[in-house]
Amino acid sequence: MKRLFWRLTMMFWTIFCVVILSFALTFYLNYEKNYSQRLFEIDQDVNRIGMEMDANTREYIRLVKSEEYKLLKILKENLQLIESLNNDDIERLIDELGVGASIPLQEDRAFYLAYLKTIDIINDTLDQTKKLYREDYKIIDFKFIPFYCHECNRERLQQKLNTLDIVKMDENLYLVNEEDGQNTTWSVYQLVQYNDQILGYIRFSYETLTSEQFVSQEERFTRSLYYIGNHLYNENNLPFEIQQKLESADFEQASQILKDEGYYINRYISENNNVKMIYYQLNRSLTWSVLEETISLFEFSTILLIFLFLLVSYILFVVIIRPCYLLIEYVKRCGEGDYTVPRNLSSIWKPSFLMVRNAYLENERLLNVKDKQSQELEFAWKRALVASQAKTLFLAKVSHELKTPLNAIKGYIQLLKLSIDQPKQRKQLEIIEYSSDLLLRHVNELLDFSMIEDGKVKLGIEKIDIFQTADKVEELFLVEAANKGIDFNLIVDGKIPHELYGDEGRIKQIIINLVSNAIKFTESGEIRVIFELDYQNETDAYLSIKVQDTGKGIASHKLESIFEAFTQENNTISRRFGGTGLGLSISKRLAEAMGGRLTVESVVDVGSTFTLFLPFSKYLAEEDES
């Protein structure tokens, strides 16, 4: 008895450990999934930022090219118009423009006037375009700067084109970083050429992604380094020591430096392969942020289940297991003559302790009274019978008490399965459910045993089709035997009548116990279940159901004891294969209750054959009486 309750206790704690390990494994898998998702999101963001820069740059260049086309078109139209004027009209135009003495030779005068007229028109147009697109493209400046008789403009442009932060996008098209100190403004320079003569350049200036306005909107920009070629042009919030290393490092060297310093990096290289970006974030900060996100509803539900399991285990320990240990210990002390009842017992358990104490006191009194030996022996027998009934009642009560929390656990498992869709998590819940079903099966064995001990087994009489019963048995064990690599064969005698009467549920219970034992103790070979007709007459049929295996076998001196309650062949089997040791005992007593018998033949290392002999009726009792 003490061993039984010790096993129950260890089983509960084993389930608890399985729950803890399942939670830890699930948490780790979720963390890995969230970590991968975070890296994927960073990669998407970096690519999005880079593609936005490329898209904006393409749009800026499109605007500049469009305005260059407009400028040349206006210039041609003005030149055609001025060439069609007479000298008086040209003189009035010169006075209107106020160029006076700066007019060039006669052959260039028409082009010069058309050029000056075009400058005024195109700058007005560019100013309107700047106002129209200021918010969309963050335009700072958009104008045409002429070269004609303005050599200083040429020198200023040449100085810009000699800087390091410059990207040549096309012939006569340049992208220049304007402000070395703030690193916030970029300009597109488009040289305007007419008949192999450079007239000037269109300058389109705009705010870049590193400006304060953009940084306040997008936090990721503050963790990025921007390169033109291999030259770093933006500020960063890295530690001073790392900034010193990056000052003289090119793009590839900077990437390696950040990796060596414990940073996760993600890179983007623009379409023109000259503008580059490095996103960086400390690995430890990335890890902590992912851990914070991993705490989800599933983890909360699992923690709640663990606390619920602990609560149920504590209640079981206080209400059932602890009193059971105390009762076993008290029985031992009563055998040594100490009848002191433990304190703080509940009203439910106190009668059991008093019953044990009274039984021992009565037994002691009977031993001391020699002159009334026969009367006292009869009285002692009655007391022993009461104690046996108390044991049966105790087993029934314990089994019922165990089934209540087990049903609660199974119910909560079903609720969790409704709220969880991930296959791995459902698999873990199925393991918990399987363990609960196994424990419930042991409890049901205890209930069956207590009912048999108490003589309360009720047999039902119903119509049975032995062939269908055999098919059900085959369905139950065919897959299990195949998974273990064992051949499973079921043979049914064709002479067996298709319609018999008996308790099919109890018959299946016996066969299932026998086949389960056969699979459990057979490592290789074959298991055969044979249904044979031994004898029949007009009213009855006698069947023998054999379960043969090629397992380890049973020693000859153990063949009788295996049918005793709570008994297995040896302790090694109990530790290796588990079980309560009630299956064969219940099966034998059920067979006897149905008017049959259960026998065994076995040879060590060869195999065992369990034979169930059962009588069946061909007609219901009511039909016979009618």
From TrEMBL:
PROSITE patterns noted in UniProt: HIS_KIN (PS50109)
EC number(s) per entry: 2.7.13.3
Catalysed reactions, semicolon-separated: ATP + protein L-histidine = ADP + protein N-phospho-L-histidine
Record Pfam families: HATPase_c, HisKA
Keywords, ordered alphabetically: Kinase, Membrane, Phosphoprotein, Transferase, Transmembrane, Transmembrane helix, Two-component regulatory system
Domain Histidine kinase: 397-618
GO molecular function list: kinase activity
InterPro entries given in the database record: HATPase_C_sf, HATPase_dom, His_kinase_dom, HisK_dim/P_dom, HisK_dim/P_sf, Sig_transdc_His_kin-like_C
CDD domains: HATPase_EvgS-ArcB-TorS-like, HisKA
Transmembrane segments: 12-31, 303-328
PANTHER family linked: TWO-COMPONENT HISTIDINE PROTEIN KINASE
Protein's UniProt name: histidine kinase
Species, as recorded: Turicibacter bilis
Record lineage: Bacteria, Bacillati, Bacillota, Erysipelotrichia, Erysipelotrichales
